[in-house]
Amino acid sequence: MNSNHHLTFKIGFWSCILFALSGVGYAFGMVALLLAFPIPQWRGVSETISTFSQSYIHFYSLCQTMAFISAPLFIVMLCCIHEYASDARKILTRISICFGIIFTVLSSMNYFVQFSVVRLSILKGQFEGLEQFVQWNPNSAFYSLNLLGWTLFLGLSSFFIAPIFLKEKKGNLIKWLLILNGITCVLGTVAVVFEIMIYLAIYPLLMTVLITTASVLVGMVFRRRMFE
């Protein structure tokens, strides 16, 4: 095997596994958070934040850090998929990478603001001007930008890499997992626009299961190719 290809498959395998672990870590962290603390109801900056304990804020920031890590790992994974793809299908992976970059920028920007500026401002009791930045506010700009990344652009990126692995043993399963993830994500965009809160409540779980399972299967493909 070409040493460059071996490096691609090695990086691809670890990016897939770490992406999956960060997604699972975020999911388990959020479930634990919901079990340990009541779901905050938005009633304005001061009133809502005054109900949070420091433990809640720190634990929530830890969950956000996991989501922050997952976005650049997704781009690394896409780049490795691009190197793996046949020449005829590299146009699909290029398009997927472009949408993935938009997703990563929106997601990373939101989460970094949340666990840095927003967290520190709350701990200092400085609430003024936070209303459009805090993710707990369903009418804030950053809530909307984050969901734009995790719904529309993650969904579009998933659609375009779906057919890349068809020649593999579990390629058809990977394809349908990514297509279903794309549909789930794009429907999330619709749910945001029309405030379909029931769907937004279940969407993160569906998306996490689909994209995490797909990334693990892609990682298995890369691992197998490492030893061929």
Beta percentage is under 5%
Report Rg: 19 Å
Distance from N terminus to C terminus (CA atoms, Å) equals 7 Å
Q: Could you list the spans in which at least 5 consecutive residues all have pLDDT below 50? A: none
Largest sheet: none
Tally of structural domains:
1
**What's the shape?**
elongated
Q: How would you state the average pLDDT, rounded? A: 93
- Percent range of helical residues: over 70%
The SSE string, one letter per element, is HHHHHHH
Structural class: mainly alpha
- Count of beta strands: 0
Overview of the molecule:
- The protein is mostly helical.
- The chain has one domain.
- The chain contains seven helices and no strands.
- The longest helix is centred in the first third of the chain and has 34 residues.
